[in-house]
Amino acid sequence: MRNNDMFRILFLGDIVGKLGRNAITKGLFDLKKKYEPDVTIANVENLSHGVGISPSGMEELDRAGIDAFTSGNHVWGNDSGVALLDDPAWSHRLIRPANMRRGEPGNGSTIYKTAGGVRILLVNLSGQLAMPNDEAIENPFHALDTILKAHEADEPQIIFVDFHAELTAEKEALGHHADGRVGAVVGTHTHVQTSDAKILPGGTAYCTDIGRVGAADSVLGFEKKSVLKRFLTGMKTPYDLETSGKAEMDGILIQMNLDTGMAERVDLFREFVVV
To answer: Which CATH number fits the domain that encloses residue 137?
Structure first.
């Protein structure tokens, strides 16, 4: 039997293209039945053909049962979806990295209120190191401090951070910087699940990367031959995407204590579905 002061967050890794969306449509119901989350969150920066979001893709995920959405540096990559970042129908539960592209559509944090009335401060940050060099990315450590101070009056019961970053060292460092001040710091972007899910000394749930929702036999969810072509030729040829086949659904289940806002348990999962 579940404790009334316990709250479960199910967070899914980067959803990659049509195969990833189809995996959510087919597999999320059973996943939620198995893990019984109170809220389901997913990273959607690769949702539409591997780059950005689209209205139709977001509606698919909404119908499938995802409650809130984080993203990353590619979220502005599809023009048809950029307007959603400022659309009141979505902006209270769809965020983008706070420390990138100030003045462009979207917010880097939001107070999301669940159906049960729990107030979650969702925060999205980009790593600063080894990210695309054409982007001006502000210091994520300072950005997090600013966001936490700005939301003090909102009195969130849980603070959840998606740190969309390349370097493991930067991710671990931010986890320790936030430890005891937020409920979870969970890494995305590299699409490969790491085995270091844990609760830090101050009570913050942490994992360097929770993986992806997309093609299992692939390179980061992208069709492997198209990726190999780029490595073999040195040319920036486009990546292709599988539309059917075996998909993996990677993520993490975090059990939070609503009295303290800190984590009590973390469990990584990696499920498979054929679509």
So the answer is: 3.60.21.10
